[in-house]
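> run fold Glycosyltransferase
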Amino acid sequence: MNIALISLHTAPDAQPGQGDAGGLNVYVRATAAELAARGHQVEIITADPARTSDAAAGHRDPAPEAPVTWAASTHLGPGVRIHRLHTPAGTKEDLLTHLDAIAAAMAGLPELADCQLLWAHYWISAAAVLRMRETHRAAATLAVSFHTIGAVKDRDTGSQREPADRLAVEPRIAAAADLVIANTPAERGDIIDLLGAPPARVITAVPGIDHTVYTPGDRHAARYRLGLGAEPVLLAVGRMQHIKGTDVAIAAMQQLRDQLPEARLYMLGAASGTDAQTAGAMAEAAAAEPAITVLPPEPAERLADWYRAADAVLVPSRSESFGFAAAEAAACGTPVIAAAVGGLCHIVTHETGVLLHSHDPQIWAQAIARLLGDDAARQQMAAAAAGRATRFTWAHCVDTVLAGLSGAGATA
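> ok
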């Protein structure tokens, strides 16, 4: 089967942890490789990543009359091609103003016309595929992975941060898709309850992780390779955002300053998000705290060493559809202290880590201090975490999706 994975707002070969790149990038790249390994031809459709740097340089609205054109296609791996669109969009939200042109460009791509399945990732990609269906009568099966849902993010943060366009179109997407793919049972419930998707068309396919990279290892050797000493090491991985609870981790370390002055938190990721003022304030607060070191995101092999070197990984997200950092840390045998939200409750249990039903920095500081002070508990959690993480595989994820497609009428 020829399959198209549409990820317009971020490319699967971008480095997670900065800009718009995160777990979605990992997901698209891994599922593409898994599908290709089974003999499927995979076409990935994305927008030119250069638009992100343009926006960062202050060019938010470049030449609205500029055409939407295709760059030369490249191979990501055997059986996987990437097709990049050049668009005038300055940000991912700006892509919405060019949906007609994007839909026309996709409808005119011969490789896409040969696909029996269009698997859209994130609401912007799904909106573009819907427009293509409406205007060009595309007949391929449409599967959608939301990855995050606007109404869920607003609910979980107790705010109204998500754009009105997103809140309006996501129920339409859920109603129109032949198959909606949720990351966890909790997300499936949200898709049905908040977006009104027909339950028979919503499946749960838990994402995987790369078990050839994320494995338990020698903690002391990992610390040696990273240039770390014997001090208590905490780790936070991912973009610095309000939704990720970056501010909670920073404030918790400030609370711990007197109690555990030797503890260090390493934050691997860049400030990100549409609220530049909030992201910038978090970056400044992190830089000002002596117990925190902010570093650029790392490629997977070196990131695995950071997980192994840490005494605990902090995931204080306010909303999370899955939680790749938590799953990767668990696979490396490191306990996770996580907020009890969304997909994190599927990854972390009280046997493998600590789940907190609060974002109060004082409560987080207390939990961190307790875990750092209990070597036996950390060792027990480490073993249990590594065992539980073995259930997260890309083979099982893709098996579930292909089975769901058969039920939706697609030929797998």
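The first strand starts at residue 2 and ends at 6.
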